[in-house]
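Hello forum,

I keep getting stuck at the same step: I have a sequence, I want structure tokens, and every attempt I make locally crashes halfway through. Rather than fight my setup again tonight, could one of you with a working pipeline run this one for me? It's a single chain of 202 residues.
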Amino acid sequence: MDFLLDPNIAYILLVFGSMLLILAALNPGSGLLELGAIFLLLLAGWGIYNLSINPWALGLLLIGFVAFLLAVRGPNRRLLLVASILALVVSSSFLFRGEGWQPAVNPWLALVLSTISAGFFWLIAVKVLEAARARPTHDLSQLIGEIGEAKSDIFLEGSVQVSGELWTARSESLIADGSQVRVIGREGFILLVEPYSKTKAS
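Reply #2:
Ran it on my machine without issues. Output:
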């Protein structure tokens, strides 16, 4: 476990764990992304716990995440988005304490991963903003009774394809990936579904 105490390794785990966490939030249901994010962040957390960190960088990191969430949900999004990404890049680079003002992370590694993470966060944010601006092409009430296909395991939350589009869905019982489903209701933009069987229906 000593290798986890290398600031460079902890930094890599933190960056990729954060990316997986955001992907898991945007694509719920499979469980694989969630498990991967938790695993990487737990390993990164071990390094953070045992390494010396800059409190100001940790505070800036938290502010950056909050600003990122606000950027994809509130007004003045572009400016706030740029500020949040800069905060995340700077804070993650300087999270581990080095000599003086120099980060403990290798500068070249910090530069490469910061560029990758900034591009990743920007791409994700742009997609979220585009989805927020897009108007649904269906009256959701008209989808009730429609038959679709589960695109992930569905219980508390998952995804289904109905009328040629992908929707977030919930079910009171576990529905396996690839099974047919029937839409029985909706909660906002979330479809409520149940397992569907042609034999049962007939």
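The longest helix spans residues 107-133. If your local run keeps crashing, start a new thread with the error log.
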